[in-house]
Amino acid sequence: MRIRGTTAAEIAGSVRDQVASGELAPQSSLPPVRALAAELGVNRNTVALAYRRLVEAGVAETRGRGGTVVAAVPQLAREGVGVGVGGDRIDLASGNPDPELLPDTLAAARRGDYNRPLYGVPAVDAGLDAWARADFAEDIDRPFRTLVTHGAVDATERLLDSHLTRGDLVAIEDPCFLASIGTLRLSGYRSAPVRVDGAGMRPDALRAALEAGARAVVCTPRAHNPTGASLTAERAADLRAILAEHPQVLVIEDDHFSAVSARPYHRITPPSSARWALVRSVSKFLGPDLRLALVAADAESTVHLEARLSAGTTWVSRLLQHIARELLLDPRVHELHERAREVYARRSGLLVERLHAQGIEVPHRPDGLNVWVQLDVDARAAVAALAQRGWAVRPGHLFSPDPAAHPGSIRVTSATVTEPQAQAFAADLASVVAELRSSAG
Ligand SMILES: Cc1ncc(COP(=O)(O)O)c(C=O)c1O
Prior knowledge:
Arc Repressor Mutant, subunit A, Aspartate Aminotransferase, domain 1, 15 strands
């Protein structure tokens, strides 16, 4: 390997050429700044600047004392891909909705007036847009524009990319939705973790993240994944007041469980926020395979979002939008959602009850598809021991940008849990915890 150049741009360019040609493999170390500066006969600051640019461009990563290494595509945990799911294990790991509580998408595709649109068609189905406008108008008390994206993750990524640049700090919940960690890492943003309690983001933690320079906040107003927390009206007002002091910060509210949430929506975006979006994915109540989310946002953000959609995928398939519209306008689907709301609340309540009966701590009553369980033993060891007993669940550290966080937490997906399963799982977890305690003591 021979890195050349006398300016930061030349040195960075030389490294990029070698990464592109394969001479420098992912994860290989770049020479220490001091050594390379001496070799090239340049100031150390020049090499340091070159390395910083490579990190900002996502070509390299810093490893603290371990120096700078060539970046690799990060290995990211994903929803639905449960660790240890398979064989005879019961899947309490996937984070998926119950397929029995999703409507019939194929039947909806055949109803209505789908007429094979061609290039040049408006990006949003008029009927779907009207439904979305009415839905958002109940919760947003100022002008907004609507758009359709390929799901919430897509909306979040495009919104962040519209307003931020690599290296910017983004406040996200800790713990948080797996895809948020992936989105930030892949786009080169730094994360400012904001602790969550039973009422959502903690105000002191949000304030600290904003004071540290966060340029965007991504917040789940209810049925937080993985903890099940939902904002109370009081907490939302506190967060709104803090955000009002930072009107240039992009506020993204990811209301992913909207139609099937047992809790009301409380808004955290203050009237003074210049850039904001409320994102409502249909994944949890029409099905994740529709890959579709409805977005309400300020005018500037929608223009950016629209431009980014046009440049890449052009529009979200009108067939998918047609299906979503047919389903959202169908009173039978509303009845199904009402049932889903009750069933999900009953199942998570049941699991919490059974766990409590075994003396296992669940910090608050959750909403959503998951229950966040607090253990006083190592969660990874508990997950492994549960796998031996036929249960797949996920360890808490996966849901944080900091791999050392939440060492005693596990996430248990309650979406499809039955009464006998809840009972048996709670008993198995209690005995796993007892075993781990006695082997630790
Ligand atoms: C917090 C959160 N947001 C969004 C989603 C859904 O994202 P998408 O619309 O991209 O399917 C999920 C799914 O698990 C989630 O937990």
